[in-house]
Amino acid sequence: MSLPEEVEHKLESIILDLMIKHKVPGLSIAMVRDEELLYARGFGSRDLEKGLPATPDTLYGIGSITKSFTALAIMQLVEKGKIDLDDQVDRYVPVRIRPRGAPIRIRHLLTHTSGLPSLCSAEAILSRLVERPSPLVPLETFEDLYTFINNAEDEVVTTPGERFFYFNAGYTLLGKVIEKVSGMVYEEYIEKLILRPLEMYRSTFLKEQAERDRDILTAYKLKEGRPIPVPFPFHPLINPAGGLLSSVRELVNYLIMNIHNGVYKENKIINGYLLKEMHEVHVRLPIRGWFGDEGYGYGWHIYTDFHGHKLIGHGGNIAVSSAYVGFIPDLRLGVAVATNCGHAPIAYIVALTALALLIGKDPEKDVPHLVYDRILEKLAGVYESYKGIVKAHVVRRGSILMLEFKEPWPEVVPLIPADPRRIEDLRFYSLHSGFIREVEFVIDERGEVDLYFERYRLHRVGPLPS
Fold this sequence. Notes:
Oligomer: single chain
Structural class: alpha+beta
CATH architecture of the largest domain: 3-Layer(aba) Sandwich
CATH class of the largest domain: Alpha Beta
CATH topology of the largest domain: Beta-lactamase
Distance between the termini: 45 Å
Strand order of the largest sheet: 3-2-1-15-14-13-12-11-10
Number of strands: 23
Strand content: 25-35%
Radius of gyration: 24 Å
Helix content: 25-40%
Largest sheet: 9 strands, antiparallel
CATH superfamily of the largest domain: DD-peptidase/beta-lactamase superfamily
Shape: globular
Number of domains: 2
């Protein structure tokens, strides 16, 4: 089984454009239907300096996708009757903080509803390991982490279970819970009870094993517009939340297990009813997204309406490597994407593109991220009023535009989409002189762009200077 030629061409064309635009050295992708591998390929370089190609077997840091493995391990222990999701966390680890006087339970850590916001422990560790400036915070051992969390009483926002705050440290604690209950080191547990049964033999947390592998990424960060090689950030405090390295080919086995109710080939990894519980929404996310209501299960993001289907997935970014896995349960379709950089959301966009193509959609119209990106790029440029008296630049800054007046009086005004989900309406608003002002772009049948701002009609006269 393989992709139709036109689908493959479209996918590869979009990947090529995205990699060039975002300066991504290497990317790998694999797609599966039911138990059949539909497509697997690497693009670009896993190591630019040595001229080594990315392949479907290249090991990448998959970041927070690791959380779904940690959650799966917890649910295996639930299945064996060794733990209950309502157990208090302080029964297993010395975390004594009680948000608003209430205990943090296992399910709160699984769903990022501990009552604490992110304490930025992962950011502190990763920035140090990948040579980015950061405050020096003593976070080297689990004892350091317990002290760090126990001193965050003033950071408490809600009672546990009330509000979603993505909390990397919570999954690190779950790793210690797994050790306490199973009697095994976390990394050993994941290898023996999840990775080996899934035939994910090369996937690993361990620096020594990874660096012996012949097909492993060189990690990159972007510096002055160029990818610069940096050390991969191995660290035990990262592992349960985001430390696994894997290949897209091996991640396909993981997707097959999730699609097939906890079974891979003849190996039952988890009972289907417990896996289904992982795939259900347990907390709504404070996001107005493109794909219906968004929620979080146990280690998984859930999108309720991906073109009429439920999409379950998770992304990961470990500063110098990023990845995304996602699957559509009712169609038994899945995709895994990974890259050797962390500066762009390309893995997620490529995965959505692949899934859209598999269900017969046109990514240029039906993947909102591509539509949004194309329109903002079209609107950016040099603008002038009648006879060039007023001159301005419209510059993209992340997900918004900035209107930068150059002549006769310099001024900078943010242009924020009125509704990002309807970016094709070309309606924005600005904060200007203390007022919220409506702003409109118009693209005529020739493709010419006009900008209407306050009293001005500005004409796009060319691209921004390089």
